[in-house]
Amino acid sequence: MREIEIKLRAGNLDLIAAKLVRLGCVLSDPKVQEDINFVNKDDLRWFEPMKEGEWIYPRLRIENNTSLTFTVKKPLTNEMDCIEHEMHIDNPEALKAVMEMFGYKQGVVVKKTRYTCVYQKYTITLDDVDRLGSFIEIEQVVDGDGSDAEKMQEEMFVFAKETLGLERDAHMMRGYDILMHEKDMENEAVV
Q: Which partner from 5, 35, 102, 190 sits 20 to 30 angstroms from 159, CA to CA?
């Protein structure tokens, strides 16, 4: 499975939600997610800009304090174009021990409240991320090589502008884990 998406800062999620409802979208109930990200204990460059396919990003997601999903993403053309595999697990401590055996340790933890909906070919998420702010993600999952990933992302930017009033200059090509790591590094520099 290949996940192609864009992420934009969103000043007012209520306004965007209202626009989506006017389009006929039905927003999900809120999901509280806690993402525990893993980093290689010997190579902390994971947060730096990467070359195509250079890094993998493992993550444990706890949703509404019950559902546990382990996900591994491998960026391709950019951080928002990834091969993704996931599976449900029932023992987070065993997963952490396995990750440690593979040379990974726990990195940043990202907590957010998420609403989702589907509009045409897109899955749209509205995220209120602790310490980072509000964001919207527009995503399309494709089978195959995803050779048109950049074209698909461009179409998503057009949709975001024309339908939701979001400007391209608000886009973020970084995952929440990396944004959180950068914020933590800024805070350490201030201290």
A: 35
